[in-house]
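Appendix B. One record, verbatim.
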Amino acid sequence: MPSIWAVIKANAYGHGIINAVQAFGQADGLAMLDLHEAILCREAGWEAPILLLEGFFEPSDLKEIEHYSLTATVHHAEQLAMLARARVASPLDIYLKLNTGMNRLGFDPADYRRAFERAVALQQDGVVGAVGKMTHFARADDSPDVTAAQIDLFNEAVAGLQGPASVCNSAGAFTPDLWQAVDPGSPQWVRPGICLYGASPFAQRTASDMGLLPAMTLRSQIISVRDIPVGAGVGYGHMFTASRPMRIGVVACGYADGYPRHAPNGTPVSVDGVRTRLVGRVSMDMLIVDLDPVPGAHVGSDVVLWGAGGPSVDEVAMASGTIGYELLCAVAPRVPKVVDGFEMPEDES
């Protein structure tokens, strides 16, 4: 089985860095982008490896990376140059990234071996410690052919090069044939992200089908109830017009809380455990739901916008033309956070 980097970038996809340190204690390492978040993990007591997925940006970052024993991704020649000029007391572990078709970060295949040789030379000089190999899948969620081509390119570029390999994101990690085909003989590290939080990396496979449970539940309550007649418009712009007499409820949640403003009529919502729908345009602090399926609903009724007891974040995202990743990351600081019955510390809110 591969080792696991638990990806906790972007404040652990909106769930809180300290929460992630506590929750992912069985992971072999943590991976993130932000140096400050990596330092928080160390100060919270995380002793296993920590990988910076974009590496370092300034020579001064290397002092912190050394001090906190972090592993850095190296994806361009300027980073190697910074390492060559560095004065370190302890060698720095790195992953050298290859661009296999994502065309975002990484050395091109024609340049990869030269870069690896340079990293090995820095290793011999005592600046670099372990050197790993890395790439990133562009379409592991929807195109086996593209992913297979990326694996072939990766394997060709790293053939004979020593060190661990890290390729698979959430979609790849859920597809054993992929990580088993990567750089045979090298230790494998997968990098799951979104699946750790109970959302699906696949458009055609739900989280529940994959046995995933939501880590985040966004909930609120009904703050007003009214009956409206046929033809009544609801909310700004009257984006919804009642086709029958109906009962509606106003929910204390809006786009200032991180709920998507572009969520359309019909987006699923749960009220008192009963599935219903959004009606009208989401406003800054409120949204409106159809209460006809929930005749017992009243002011104070529990509303689940996504998560346990309501629609999945993926359902809300799909209705809104986006992805669950964005919604989880977008929950606003003003939203009270509670973890296992306790309020989240201020620096996590």
